[in-house]
Every structure is written in C-alpha cells, then in structure tokens.
Amino acid sequence: MIGRSRPAGRHRGGQPVTAVYRRVWDGPARAEAEVLGSVSPGWSVLYSLSMRRFFGLCAWPSPQAVIVSDDTVEGLEQRMREAETLLILRMPTAESLGRAA
Q1: pTM summary value
Q2: Helix, strand, or coil (residue 89)
Q3: Residue 88's closest CA among 66, 70, 72?
Q4: DSSP 99
Q5: Which contiguous run of DSSP H or E holds residue 55?
Q6: What phi and psi, each to the nearest 5 degrees, are found at residue 88?
C-alpha cells in the first residue's frame, strides 16, 4: 500500500469501490448548540460528543476563564445568564476605582 493512492470508500483489492455512509453523531444536539451560540453574543457554545453535555465559553475579558456546562441547552442558557449577572455584579464602578464619574 505504500506509494499507491487509495480510492475513497470501502474497498479491497479486486473488488468494486462502495460508498461509505457518513454518520452525523448527535445532529440535533449539535444544531441546538449552534443556534444558542448564534443568539448569544459573547459566548462560544459547544456540544461534547464524548460527554454528551453542552458547554459555554465566555468570549469577553474576565479575570478568569468562565466555562459553564449543563446536560440540556435550556439549562446551559440559564447558567450563561447567571454567569453574566455575576460578572456585572462584580464589575468595579468608577467611584471604587477613584475616578470621577
């Protein structure tokens, strides 16, 4: 086999080439993650095939990485909103920084 190119699909020497069915694993869950990511600016939303969980990674500047996860896309969205609220509550104000507002 070294040095010879292989045709695409299942094959054996002397047998005709047959097409291989390409399986899309967890297609609906991956589509839900894509939709949530598109309607949530500031977040990257992923679906883990190995863990069967949704993950949200924040894309805004923060002192620490913010990663939330949940088993459902609805639960992940709720956790994302909670993380945003906590970040806003912890954000320093102009008065606390010693600046005039």
Answers
A1: 0.69
A2: helix
A3: 66
A4: -
A5: strand 53-58
A6: -65, -40
